Amino acid sequence: MTASKRRISVLYGGVSKEREVSLVSGKAAAEALEKAGFAVTKIDVPRDVTTLIKAISDSKPDVVFNALHGRFGEDGRIQGLLDMMGIPYTHSGSMASAVAMDKPMAKKLFASAGIPVAPERIVTRREAEAGDVMDRPYVLKPFNEGSSVGVKIVRAGDNRPPLDDLGLDLDDQLMAEKFIPGREVTVAVLGDKPLAVTEITTSHAFYDYEAKYADGGSKHTLPASLAPELTARVMDLAVAAHRILGCRGVSRSDFRLDGDQFTILEVNTQPGMTPTSLVPEQAAYVGMSFVDLVTWMVEHARCDA
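Structure (tokenized):
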């Protein structure tokens, strides 16, 4: 089937805390798909499942391009719905998506594959607000948010950060993780091949939501200035993380480099497709335009029906 006859429904927006960046990702992907000759319908995903199913069904897609970010979009739920509907979609399947968003479970799998991880504890919000839950510096992370949403760093001399913005009850759980110093680098994996290594620097306290998506929030050095053996090693680690989670399509793995030791931070199964996003930058670096990238993603879409 030629591109001009294929119908692509782009799911974007949604109801997560990452709605705004998803709107930008979805618009960019839709424009690129139209340039490639596809017939594109954009669907701003509502919370009501019946309304969503009707919108998808009415658009009669050959493929769904999933440009959602955060909860309900990259945690396996929308993927499971599309599996039930029998519609191929971009990015990882329901199981890989769910596991990647479950940070403690993902870390167990990384460790089993020999990928270095930071020590962690599972604590309640009540415990985290009552006192230090591990030696400082450490990081508090919600279990199932992306784009560093809700991440808090507790450093020596700091007051403990307020946690009332996370929408968690006192007995809900968080992950406390040893803070790993050093340089931040990221590797995109396309299929089963690493693209490049980017180093990220920012004037923010860390590479948080604003640093990721605001204009000027971060600086991307591509390729990262690393010794060849370090470049090769972190690319191998990214591919190993992609495989151990069962990812498909495109993923992006983030690491800290302290000395010559890499520690994985997370795998993003729905990397951003915004003008400041890392995956399109790495694709361009290896000679793949944004139009080529989204076309590749559509051509490799599938479902687990």
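The chain has ten helices and twelve strands. The two ends are 21 Å apart (CA to CA).
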